Amino acid sequence: MSDGELTALILVAAFMAFLTRVGGHLILVRFTPLHPRVEAALQAVPVAVLGALIAPAILLGGPAELVASIVAGLIALRASTAWVIACGVVVLVVLRRLAEG
Amino acid sequence: MSKTPPGRGEALAGSLASLTILPAIVPFGMLFGALAITAGFTPWQTMLASGTIYAGASQYLMLEMLGQSISPFAILLAMLAINFRHVLYSAALGRHLQRFSTWQKGLAFALMVDPVFAAGEQRARATTSLGPAWYFGYAASVYAVWMLANALGMTFGALIPEPARWGLDYVLPLYFLGLLMGFRSSSGFLPVLGAAVSGSIAVHLTIGAPYHILGGALAGLAVAVWRAPATHGSEREP
User: Fold this and answer.
1) What ipTM, to 2 d.p.?
2) Which of B174, B203, B205 to mutate to test the interface with A (most CBs of A within 10 A)?
3) What's residue B223's pLDDT?
């Protein structure tokens, strides 16, 4: 792929990314006022999307990833996201080193 | 403080609220900057991609597929599949933007990445009204740090150690896990999460990535819709 083609690909991808970002809202405003079931679905968007996004990495990633995620999830009950990541990464690195022997 | 315009204090509060998420963005952005240069992007193209596509997971996917010489059309389709969650984010966040002008809405959506959406949703649920100043304070900080991290990764990419050895390959799932746990007290958290996870794993094992995002998300939303009459018990249909 040439430099020009790559730049074109980037710009088309950017345009499509923007469309997905405005699209949901533009479709939804045609359907106001919202039906309670639609409202319930929208309330569930963060949990449904984030859960679907990370499930394979956590459950299919391996034992070290699973344990690190459980620890991180428990830490999330008390601390901010920065702590969740830091502790999860530390646990993961330690477990991976142990597995290497 | 009473002499400061209310907007400025709000913007600062939004910016400060983003501080907990910024440490996660730095390695993620640096890694993209470094990998893009390795994949043959010019520095200008790297910044163009990160600045305009501004959806890290799909950008990583683009690099990976370019490396396998997959057709541009297939690359765009896969990127659309991974970014389709933004359609759902957009529909959900759009309900909270009553105080935004039309162009502010456009900019708000352009800057809406996962943590910005999650923070905006939480802010709107906690305060009942999401202000533009707070939102843009948060979103602009995330964007600035993302771009800076990309530039650092391009420049000092060779200094980044093996990602897996330092667990950097797992920062993103942990980061999304942290965002997810921020919604643990929302109604139907466990059933919606259970359906989303089951759907995601099922699609991942059959059709494959990145379509598990869409499959899992729709399973989660279906459960939320199915549960709706019970949670909105007082609101009968006309």
Assistant:
1) 0.92
2) B174
3) 97
